[in-house]
Amino acid sequence: MNAEWSVSVMARAQRHAALGEPARLAIIDRLLLGDASPGELGQELGLPSNLLAHHLKLLEQVGLIERSRSEGDRRRTYLRLRVDTLADIMPAPLRTAPRVVFVCTHNSARSHLAAALWKRHSTIPTASAGTDPARRVHPGAVATARRHGLSLAAARTAHIDETLRPDDLVVAVCDNTHEQLGTRAPDRLHWSVPDPTRTGTDDAFADALSDLADRIDRLAPAVRPPGGSDD
Is pTM beyond 0.90 here? Predict the structure, then answer.
């Protein structure tokens, strides 16, 4: 048996074994469309902290999930799915929403980039907003969008209170916003996307766009409009 092939098969077998436990599979299902802190996972799935920690350790060991430190509350960590290890798994239609609203703190970069990408993948309407909107969209976001065939020329910042409707699917694309929203939009998704405006470099904006594009590739097939199809 080829040594490289053997290592690959063993790694895949370990992942399949990890997913053979219902609680761990439920964790993966939850992380498929959005990130979550261990506390959030435990509460949503009804798992005690010691049992949750055991399952998370096993999923990390086989490379299915990874942790990142919150950019908001630095005491928090968020878990995210390593999609490269689940490349052959596609999300099932899990959400119904008349509109998808992407929210970040200043509504100046990530939320606008996410909305622009969404329009490429779905006919379900989209919008973006901020909890503390900036005066304008960040020039780095505008330039990055242009380089990738997207346009933010007409984009303007807006406050979430002026934008949000009761039935919207809210996607918080930054840690600060997710933590600030609390019980508002309780069924929201959270994507822990690093803030490119902190450094303002082309690479930071490109990385944010790439992260958002990967997540939207997974989310778009999983959202359907109420009572119909988005085809």
Answer: no
